[in-house]
Amino acid sequence: FCTVNDEPSPIENLGQVLIGERIQPSPYKVSY
Question: What's the superkingdom here (predicted)?
Fold first, then answer.
């Protein structure tokens, strides 16, 4: 999908980087 370039990427901790979890902003809004 196309990423949103206007927003900065959220800060990831070392564990997330090592196991490959990437947090990217997207135009989707999910409610639980």
Answer: Eukaryota
pTM of the model: 0.31
Q: How far is CA 5 from CA 1, 2, 14, 26, 27, in A?
A: 12, 9, 23, 9, 11
20 is in which domain, residue-wise?
1-25
Taking only the tens of pLDDT, the chain with its 32 residues reads 565 566 666 667 777 777 777 776 677 778 87
Domain annotation covers residue 16? yes
Total of domains in the chain: 1
